[in-house]
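Sample intake sheet
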Amino acid sequence: MMKAFFTSDLVLLTITIALFVAGSALHRRTRLMLLHPVLLTFVAVIVFLRMVDIPYDRYMEATHILDFALGLSVVSLGYLLYEQSERLSRNLLPILCSTLAGCVAGVLSVVWIAAWLGADRTILNSIAPKSVTVPIAITIAEPMGGIISITSVVVFCVGIFGAVFGPQILHYGGVCTPESVGFSLGAASHGIGTSRAIELGAIEGAMSGLAMALMGVATALLTPILGQYFY
C-alpha cells in the first residue's frame, strides 16, 4: 500500500521538487559548493528510490515533465545571448577557435587517459562526449557502441565537478574575464556549468549558454572522426 502511494506520478514529482528545494535552501545557507543542490538531489533521489524499491524506469516515467521543463530552460538561454549579441559578434573568431580546440582537447584528453589506464573501446566511446549535455552525449555515444548508462553518469559527474570547482580552477589559472569564465564553464560542464555561470553574472551566463550549444554541435560532428583516427 505504501509503495503504491510513492509510485504515483504526482507523489514522485512532488518529492523530487521538494528535495531540490531543500537542497537549494541548504546550499544558500552554507554556501558550500560541495553541497550543490543538483548533487544533493541526485544522491537523495537514489537513496529514496532504493528505500521504497521503485524502479528507475518508473521514476523517469513519472517525472518526464521535468525533462520537458529542462528543455524550456535551455531555450530560455537564448534571451541571455540576445542581450549580449553585440559583445558576442565582436568575439566571433576567438569563440569558434575556442570551441574547436575545446572539443578536440575535451574528447582526446579523457579517452587517452582512459586508454592508458587500460579501458576498452566500449568504455572509450562511452566517455568521449563527456562535456556535452546528456541527450546529445547519448546520441553520440550509442551509435559508436558506447554504453549510455555510463555516458549519462560520466556527463553528470563532469557537470557537477565543473560547477563546484570550475570557477576556482579558472581563477587559479588566471582566467578572470567574464567572457572567458562563462565560455569555459559551458564548454566543459554543459548545462550544470551554465547554471553556475548564470549565478556569476549575465555575461558569464550568455557565454556559457553559447559554449554549451557550440560544443554540442562540434562534439557531435568531430567525435566520430576523432574516434576513427586518433583513438
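Comment: The radius of gyration is 19 Å. Residues 90-229 form one domain.
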